[in-house]
TrEMBL record:
Keyword Ligase: no
Family the UniProt entry places it in: Belongs to the Diels-Alderase family.
InterPro entries for this protein: DA_C (IPR054499), DA_N (IPR056402)
Residues covered by the Diels-Alderase N-terminal domain: 5-212
Name of the protein in its database record: AttH domain-containing protein
GO molecular function, one term: isomerase activity
Organismal lineage: Eukaryota, Fungi, Dikarya, Ascomycota, Pezizomycotina
Swiss-Prot/TrEMBL keywords: Isomerase
Occurrences of domain Diels-Alderase C-terminal (ranges): 216-377
Family matches, as Pfam families: DA_C, DA_N
Length: 402
């Protein structure tokens, strides 16, 4: 792994450029924690450091995303979304004006911050992460108007993470890189929110992953789904995408299955059935599954009619098959990803899972568990362009009418 000392400090909006920006190259065998956009950010390029944590009881969770992109006009984002034990939700984007990523021989540190306002009414704000280069821990800290506190991830002494990927296996789908820097860790959370609520637990489960791309979401994909779950002795980490850049073979999956903290199956690449290689099948459910129609939960957007998914892990060489039914259990967040008439959005859920190993007689282990899931659909670029042209025409006609 590289121990090169580097510092990247970007200021918003000076770092945003209309020119094309090349991403720093992928580093094989590395967590790739240092920024891929060290000098400036193009209108289409983006990268994210993503962290999540699920409580031991499975009734609460938090997701945190540090973004370097040009998606907002207010600053670089340090997103925090929390689901509390009573079912209430807390979420904030936290745009900040400065993003600094620094590397040394032991770790990579990221700091998103804004200075205090000149009149002193708004105090300085800061959100930060520190990730060890050996991918054994991550420490996050928040001193924001919306949230204060910490999140810590640490791997166990006995845990053996999968080999860090080469560039081919890290290329999740055309145009997008995915590196599961810390796929399995113990999580400790201590957060207090401006609304007066708090979230605190230890011995939870958590993960950290990195994503980056030089292309905007409307070009990249139709549907994306993320799952982090604990089901009895099993831990699941799954990302599924429907690509727009490969219509012949659009379905991509990156999935890890652990049992008792030991890796059982690692699947990356196209979703397909194989008689030789391990594979994952991913199918939507629309009727509430085993929980029944009365318990069905859906996203709030027109294109999210499913109530969950059926996920099959298959290892042909060992003749082993695991099946897990994932059902949306508690709504978490819902926000649009395009104009209302296109019906696209991003929805988060606390998930209910049932399943396990399938026996030769066809019987499935009945382990039950919880997980956090995020489901996102994105409008097609052509439809967005058409609506923008229509909006500009209507605005012109309105001005002429005046």
């Amino acid at each position: 792994m590289s121990s090169e000392q580097r510092v990247s400090k970007l200021h918003f909006p000076a770092a945003i450029t209309d020119a094309q920006v090349a991403l720093d190259p992928f580093i094989p065998g590395s967590p790739n924690s240092f920024t891929k956009l060290p000098d400036n950010i193009g209108k289409a390029t983006w990268e994210v450091w993503y962290f999540d944590a699920l409580s031991p009881s499975g009734d609460s969770a938090v997701t945190i995303s540090f973004w370097r992109d040009a998606m907002t006009k207010e600053g670089f984002r340090a997103q925090v979304h929390a689901l509390l034990p009573d079912g209430t939700t807390v979420g904030s984007d936290n745009p900040l004006l400065e993003s600094t990523v620094a590397s040394d021989s032991s770790s990579v540190t990221g700091t998103w911050c804004s200075p205090a306002s000149p009149d002193g009414e708004t105090p300085a704000q800061e959100a930060s992460f520190k990730i060890r280069n050996d991918a054994t821990s991550a420490c996050l800290s928040f001193k924001l108007a919306t949230v204060q506190g910490t999140l810590d991830l640490a791997t166990s002494d006995k845990y053996q993470p999968p080999n860090l990927p080469d560039e081919k296996s890290a290329s999740f789908t055309p145009g997008v890189y995915l590196v599961r820097s810390i796929p399995l860790a113990s999580a400790a959370v201590d957060l207090t929110f401006s609304c007066g609520s708090s979230l605190s637990f230890t011995n939870g489960s958590g993960a950290h992953q990195r994503n980056w791309s030089s292309l905007p979401w409307p070009v990249l994909m139709d549907l994306n789904y993320y799952l982090a779950a604990e089901v009895g002795p099993y831990t699941i980490r799954l990302m599924h995408i429907t690509s727009r850049l490969d219509r012949a073979l659009p379905y991509r999956v990156n999935a890890l299955l652990f049992r008792d903290n030991q890796l059982v199956l690692n699947v990356t690449g196209r979703e397909h059935v194989s008689f030789i290689q391990p594979f994952v099948l991913f199918r939507p459910l629309f009727d509430g599954g085993s929980a029944g129609k009365e318990a069905a939960v859906r996203g709030t957007f027109p294109d999210m009619t499913n109530t969950g998914f059926l996920v099959d892990f298959v290892d042909p060489s060992e003749k082993r098959h695991w099946q897990f039914e994932v059902g949306h259990f508690k709504p978490w967040w819902n926000y649009p990803t395009g104009p209302p008439q296109l019906g696209t959005g991003n929805s988060g859920f606390l998930e209910r899972l049932v399943g396990g190993l399938v026996s030769e007689q066809g019987q499935t282990e009945g382990f039950e568990g919880r997980g956090l899931g995020g489901q996102c659909t994105v409008p097609d670029m052509d439809k967005l362009t058409e609506l923008m042209k229509l909006g500009a025409l209507q605005q012109q006609q309105t001005k002429q009418g005046d």
